[in-house]
């Protein structure tokens, strides 16, 4: 029978063998060389909050500072060379983001926000919630019990609008799945419903099946199979995309909030909401500001939003320097 010490020796020997053969594992370069070059500041420090936010490499900060010191970026809503540079750079970043998630501008739009929480609040404030009435059932706001605090917080918005809230235990999604109820024209419901779940739990690190996206949208999975209406899926991907690929062509979630600092470590005040263009058409925006208005009157209640999804929602001018810095990531 092997002793504890011999087992420990074997484990150590196995790890050393692994490290010796795969010393570039996950990075494409020698890990020690990478640490010496990019993370000298963590010498003697054990960093255990990678799930919260990764550490930025030194080259990212240097690249950002170099870019900002060499170029003049102006308000993207103006018309001059510095504004054009900002506009073109931001649009280039949008394309790169969509490409990273294996989708395109014809399918999705990138709305920059101050982080994942701001992206979630944007959905909460603009989703066309419908209260139940004599005319039919209302909207349902449903979420996994294993969800980010900012997701659960959406119920503070829905409660004021008379919208039903359903918290779902993880094992119920598939266990209670069944074919959706047969609907006749007289029973059809136009109420929009929203189901929120994390691709990866911020608390436990558990990854949930991405197949839930289509399962909910097609009303095959619980709770969508028990409530009539159109179902939208909000996939909280902030934790997931920091270390895992997300293919939106296969898992076309309607709303995907992300935080770039979880992916790159810098900057901390930049995130985005990836919105499927089909779903974007149902959102209802009441507040307008920045460069999101095509026209409005001061003395009358008249307002015309910008024509496309991005310009209608995205106040890019306030965060464009941070977006520009992401070119070096």
UniProtKB/TrEMBL annotation:
Top-level taxon: Eukaryota
Region named Disordered: 173-192
GO molecular function: molybdenum cofactor sulfurtransferase activity
Aminotransferase class V domain segment(s): 46-298
Stretch forming the signal peptide: none
SUPFAM superfamilies for this protein: PLP-dependent transferases
InterPro entries: Aminotrans_V_dom, PyrdxlP-dep_Trfase, PyrdxlP-dep_Trfase_major
Pfam families linked to this entry: Aminotran_5
PANTHER family for the chain: MOLYBDENUM COFACTOR SULFURASE (PTHR14237:SF80), MOLYBDOPTERIN COFACTOR SULFURASE MOSC (PTHR14237)
Protein name: Molybdenum cofactor sulfurase
């Amino acid at each position: 029978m092997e002793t504890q010490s011999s087992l420990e020796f074997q484990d150590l020997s196995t790890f050393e063998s692994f490290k010796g053969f795969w010393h570039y594992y996950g990075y494409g370069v020698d890990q020690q060389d990478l640490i010496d070059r990019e993370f000298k500041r963590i010498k003697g420090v054990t960093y255990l909050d990678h799930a919260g936010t990764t550490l930025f490499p030194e080259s990212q900060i240097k690249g950002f500072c170099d870019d900002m010191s060499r170029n003049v970026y102006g308000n993207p809503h103006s018309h001059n060379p510095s504004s054009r540079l900002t506009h073109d750079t931001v649009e280039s970043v949008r394309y790169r983001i969509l490409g990273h998630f294996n989708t395109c501008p014809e399918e999705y739009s990138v709305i920059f926000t101050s982080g994942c929480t701001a992206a979630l609040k944007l959905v909460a404030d603009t989703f066309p919630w419908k209260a139940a009435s004599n005319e039919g059932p209302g909207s349902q706001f449903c979420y996994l019990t294993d969800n980010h605090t900012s997701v659960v917080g959406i119920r503070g918005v829905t409660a004021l609008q008379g919208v039903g809230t359903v918290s779902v235990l993880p094992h119920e999604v598939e266990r209670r799945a069944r074919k959706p109820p047969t609907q006749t024209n007289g029973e059809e419901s136009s109420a929009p419903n929203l189901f929120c779940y994390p691709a990866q739990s911020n608390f436990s690190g558990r990854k949930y099946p991405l197949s839930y996206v289509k399962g909910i949208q097609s009303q095959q999975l619980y709770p969508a199979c028990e409530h009539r209406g159109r179902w939208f899926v909000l996939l909280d991907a902030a934790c997931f995309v920091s270390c895992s690929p997300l293919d939106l062509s296969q898992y076309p979630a309607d709303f995907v909030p992300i935080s770039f600092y979880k992916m790159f470590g810098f900057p901390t005040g930049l995130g985005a909401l990836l919105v499927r263009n089909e779903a974007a058409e149902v959102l209802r925006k009441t507040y307008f500001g920045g460069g999101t208005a095509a026209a409005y009157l001061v003395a009358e209640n008249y307002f015309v939003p910008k024509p496309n999804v991005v310009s209608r929602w995205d106040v890019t001018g306030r965060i464009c320097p941070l977006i520009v810095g992401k070119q070096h990531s």
